[in-house]
Structures are given as C-alpha cells and as structure tokens.
Amino acid sequence: MVVHGSDAAGVVLVVVAARGEVAMKIWIDPPSGWRWGFPKIYDRLDDGADVRAWLVREGYPQTEIDGLGEHFYWRSWEASAEETRQFRPGIPTRG
Prior knowledge:
It contains three helices and five strands. By secondary structure, it is of the alpha+beta class.
C-alpha cells in the first residue's frame, strides 16, 4: 500500500508496509534548515501532507516560509529505518 499526500508546494510520498508500519522514512530539509535542527524525519500520516505546518511545529520559523513566498521549497528523500539509524544514530524509528 502506498499513501500519497501533497500540498501547494510539493509532493510527499510515504511507503507503507502491509501491516501499516512505515517502511521508508521521509527526510525533510528546508532552506537553512540546519539552524533549526533539520533535516528531520517526516513520518506523520495524520498530517494530511501539510508539510509547511509540520515544519513550523518542528521549529522552522513561519517568517522563513513567508519570506520566500511561492519560491519556498524543501529537499526530501526516502531512507529505510536501517539507513536512518546509520545516518542519525539514536533517532527513534517506527519501521
């Protein structure tokens, strides 16, 4: 099963295993995200793919998003739970 979500600025893809567990993690990295602890794992299926709202909840300033307007973007990539543990040991993963 694959769950897709999108918002006005981009598309997020979450791959879900047969048991409903997240098989792949989505890493999100907004512009200058390192200042606020990004990249971070976006694995909230209940968010409805509102990545901008999630970024703000995770500590990314709304002023940064507003300042770039329609040119706001973020990088994203998939990583398995194992790759995630190798990249950032100690980060809890559900997959």
